[in-house]
Design a protein that fits this description.
The complex is a heterodimer of chains A (265) and B (269).
Chain A: E1 17-28, E2 31-42, E3 46-50, H1 57-65, E4 72-77, E5 83-86, H2 100-105, H3 112-122, H4 137-150, E6 155-159, H5 167-184, E7 187-192, E8 197-199, E9 204-209, E10 211-216, E11 219-220, H6 225-231, E12 239-241
Parallel strand pairs in A: 3-7, 3-9, 5-6, 6-7
Antiparallel strand pairs in A: 1-2, 1-4, 8-12, 9-10, 11-12
Helix pairs in contact in A: 3-4
Chain B: H1 4-29, H2 33-53, H3 57-75, H4 83-102, H5 106-117, H6 125-144, H7 146-154, H8 156-161, H9 166-188, H10 193-205, H11 211-236, H12 240-268
The chains are: A alpha/beta (265), B mainly alpha (269).
Chain lengths: 265, 269
């Protein structure tokens, strides 16, 4: 197969590069989940990975984290890369008594002072004594984010951080993530199931559906009055609209049905 | 007046409770309750083989428990049968094979009840060395790997992304359970070992707000069960091993009742 995937724009300078995945292929149970996928994240850069359910986003993230190995392709992480990870599914057994504080303490070498600072940053100081399974979806997301930043990560990997959070909570979380990125100067790899709305601070959007369908920079919401009207003035600084530039379509099974086959199997 | 054998039973039983409690908590949190059963049931095979080959029975038990733990770890990787099915197959086949092999060794036949239900009153000074030496090592390793094991138990993906080696930690944990089962058998026997691991931990859950408190509390509740079981066995002339488990179960029921009462009083307010 000729390597005809379009190069990713604004490829970051090699020195800043935290993570580089080249030509990743992955099959599970006889189905090709990832085909010919390239991904890179640099310091201080926010990359948002979007795509429909079952598009292989989480699998790609797990490959990036080193949790699974691809069938083929190259995975390069900067040596000693410190990763803060926020998983998509998080469930604590009812039999395990765990307060938010004790959970945060599990981050290696977390001093009490850092712990309080992280809790304050994400706004969960008042929840520290609460058991984890009593927290609401949004509170749990913030606690997970606090755990991730306690590690002072160079790379923050967030798998659907705003899932199940209402629009206001979503914008607050986006604010928070943008602030953390500025403060730590870390790279951020974020997964979102929303195909059109991404965090405004996103530098690059990658649309994945088993292969990279398209990629580019999002537009500000202000350029799209209909979205601005829908989400209100608060969304102006926080949300961005991504316009897809697909040259092919997928059928219900995710198979490419037309187009010139660029990047398709 | 405290007889020597009673003192040894008490010291041995308390020693076992000390490591069974914290380890039992992890078994509970990781939903591995049947693992203890599978390991302990296979211990009879270790005893029988030890008799046949003529090696130290403790070594026979330990060897078989570790072998079964490794086997289980390998079995978990396949997806065709669920783990609970495998555990039932393994634990009951192992027990039956043990009983069949034991039938070839007449001297073992006589002591079979003691192995199945424990003979804490027969604990010898040499057993105490095993219990405290082995138990000490188990507790020391558990404390050393506490943070990694707890992280993995809370969320495996998160722990692995943070650089914790899940394979090695999981393997060490399995071996710890194997050693703990081999040691705890002395008190309550093959059939009741997992009760001593699980029941105190389950009782402790209602009164603990952190994992560490639950572990310490489970050890304390286990110790109280050993004490109460031995005492009632002495007074009522009941079998010691089952009496300890009955005491543990009674404490568990009490904890259930107390949580019901406290719930009712909060709703009444």
């Amino acid at each position: 197969m000729p390597d005809d995937t379009p190069p990713i724009e604004r490829v970051p300078a090699a020195a800043d590069r935290l993570l580089q995945l080249d030509d990743i292929h992955l099959a599970r149970n006889g189905r090709q989940l990832l085909n010919h996928v390239h991904l890179s994240v640099a310091a201080n850069e926010i990359v948002t990975l979007i795509g429909p359910n079952g598009a292989g986003k989480t699998m790609l993230v797990r490959i990036a984290l080193g949790l699974i190995l691809p069938d083929s392709g190259r995975v390069e992480r900067r040596p000693g890369l410190n990763i803060g990870y926020m998983p998509q599914h998080f469930h604590v057994e009812e039999t395990l008594p765990l307060t938010a504080r004790r959970f945060l303490q599990l981050a290696k070498g977390a001093a009490e002072q850092d712990l309080r600072a992280a809790a304050a940053e994400v706004g969960i100081e008042h929840l520290l004594a609460q058991p984890l399974h009593g927290l609401s979806g949004g509170e749990l997301q913030r606690t997970l984010l606090a755990r991730a930043i306690l590690r002072r990560p160079q790379l923050l990997v967030l798998d659907e951080p705003v899932r199940g959070v209402d629009m206001t909570g979503q914008m607050e979380l986006y604010d928070l993530i943008a602030r953390i990125r500025r403060r730590l100067g870390c790279g951020v790899l974020m997964v979102s199931h929303d195909l059109h709305i991404v965090m405004a601070a996103t530098d690059r959007v990658i649309c994945l559906n088993h292969h990279i369908c398209c990629h580019g920079q999002p537009d500000t919401v202000s350029e799209h009055p209909e979205y601005l009207a829908l989400f209100g003035p608060l969304s102006k600084e926080r949300l961005a609209v991504y316009q897809h530039r697909h040259d092919h379509r997928h059928d219900l099974h995710g198979e490419v049905v037309n187009g010139n086959g660029r990047g398709a199997r | 007046m405290l007889h020597d054998f009673l003192a040894r039973a008490l010291i041995g039983g308390l020693g076992i409770a000390l490591f069974a409690g914290p380890l039992g908590c992890f078994i509970l949190w990781r939903r591995m309750a049947y693992f203890g059963d599978a390991l302990s049931h296979s211990a009879l095979l270790g005893i029988a083989l030890g008799f046949l080959v003529g090696i130290d029975l403790n070594l026979g038990i330990l060897g078989i428990c570790i072998a079964v733990a490794l086997f289980l770890l390998a079995l978990q990787r396949q997806k065709r049968l669920t783990v609970d099915t495998l555990l039932v197959i393994l634990s009951h086949s192992a027990l039956s094979i043990g009983l069949v092999v034991a039938s070839f060794t007449p001297s073992l036949q006589i002591d079979l009840t003691a192995y199945l239900f424990g003979d804490i009153l027969a604990i010898a000074p040499r057993d105490l060395i095993w219990i405290y030496g082995g138990g000490g090592v188990v507790l020391a390793i558990l404390i050393k790997m506490w943070r990694s094991l707890l992280s993995l138990t809370v969320n495996e993906e998160l722990a692995r992304a943070e650089g914790i080696n899940a394979e090695v930690t999981g393997l060490i944990f399995m071996l710890l359970i194997a050693v703990a089962v081999a040691l705890a058998m002395k008190a309550v026997g093959i059939l009741l070992v997992s009760a001593l691991l699980i029941i105190p931990a389950a009782t402790a859950r209602r009164f603990a707000s952190t994992p560490e408190r639950m572990a310490v509390l489970a050890a304390a509740i286990g110790a109280a069960s050993v004490f109460a079981g031995l005492f009632s066995s002495l007074k009522l002339d009941t079998p010691a091993g089952p009496s300890i488990v009955v005491a543990a179960a009674a404490l568990f029921v009490l904890s259930l009742a107390s949580s019901l009462v406290s719930r009712q009083s909060t709703t009444a307010r």
